[in-house]
Amino acid sequence: MINGLRIKRTNSADPDFQKLIMHLDHELWNELQEDQATYDQYNKIPDLQTTLVLYINDKPAAIGCFKKYNGDTVEIKRMFVEKEFRRKGLSNIVLKELEDWAIESGYKYAILETSIHFKATRTLYSHAGYKVIDNYDQYAGLEESVCMKKYLVAVKPSEFKRMNGIEYFDFEEGFIEENVRCIPMIVRFKMDLAGVKLKLAEWSKFNIDERKELAVKSCNTVDEITAYNNYLKRLVEKYTGKPATEMEVDKDTTWEKNDIVPGMLNQKAKEFDWNISVDEWRQLTKLQRFALLKLCRPGHENKNFPKAMKEFKIVK
What we know:
This protein is α+β, with helices and mostly antiparallel strands. 38% of the residues lie in helices and 18% in strands.
């Protein structure tokens, strides 16, 4: 917790909100220059009743607001943190408070627009669960704009969170797409062994007992792997009326080898200026090693890799 932190829900006429708006616009004009002339007209928020000011020791440090877009959607606007208070996670706090306020007001979605030039800002929104969408309304056709959207309604904790007899990781609570929890690593691990692909749309149709069975069902011996394969294929056909998609079982089970750190994993770790020793790799469980290799695949979202590295106590 940051000492001296206070959040005030207010309106767009608030003097502290207006003060930081001026600082925000000054930075935007300096950074985007003539391009800002296009966007400045879309940033006006007169008479808005849903603005926030975040204070540190009674000094205005960050702001944000949202406005109604349609009956179930808000648009996040004017996110800003004063320079002296940056790198403290204040943007995340403001964004979360805005989302909570929107949910309390009955909204289900949030959209926003940012610039292709603001990589850190796009990363912030991506890590918060926002997905890139087609540019909407006034931003359509503007190549400098990136538009994003998030489903706001809270998702219940996973049924695997406190389930005995399986490995389930804290970072997996963030595995959510369109309000559907993704397939946990323990099931992905067994799917790979059994040679069956499972789509999220198929997984979401299974009932809780069937998903739990897929998590606890043994998949070690040849007979167990065959039984797992048959069980999973029956479930897919039961709910879709179509045969499951089979895949070739990867014979290169790198996660089993504990005497050398895979090059792909070391390469990913170097992106964060980290190094994984053989001893650290050896102390991980097979599922932890499997999870790290899945998370460092090319094209995979980076946000869960550092979370896993910290949860597995490889880095602090």
